[in-house]
Amino acid sequence: MSPVLNVGMIEMAHRYDKVAVPGAFTPTEIITAWQNGADLVKVFPAGRVGPTFFKDVLGPLPQVRLVPTGGVNLDTAAEFIKNGAAALCVGSAMMPKAAMAEGRFEVITDLACHFVEIVRQTRA
Questions:
Q1: Structural domains in the chain plus CATH codes
Q2: pLDDT digit string (tens) for 9-25?
C-alpha cells in the first residue's frame, strides 16, 4: 500500500509475491498504475472527488479495481460500492479517537461489522 504511484513499489511487491496497491488521484495515474501491474489502485483523497468519480473513471476503464481511501464513512460506503469500488479503505471512520484512547476496542469491532454489512447488502 502506497500513498502515491511508484512503479518501483509495484515491481517490488510482486517480486516478493505481495499485493501492490499504489495510490493515484487522476485517471492518468490510475491507468498507469494498472498498466504497471497494480492489483488494486487506491484513490486518495476519495472524499474530494466523491463516489461518482469511481463510476466516471470505470466507464472507460472497467478493468481497473479501484479502492477509495479518505472520505469513506458509514454515510458514503454504500455509494462508493454502488459506483464500482472493488473494496473500501476505512481509517478514522472506523477508529474513533475517543474509543481508542479509552481502550474501547469493541467500538472498532462493531464499526467494522457495520461496514462489512453495508458492503454485503449493497452488493446483494
A1: 7-90 (3.20.20.70)
A2: 999 999 999 999 999 99
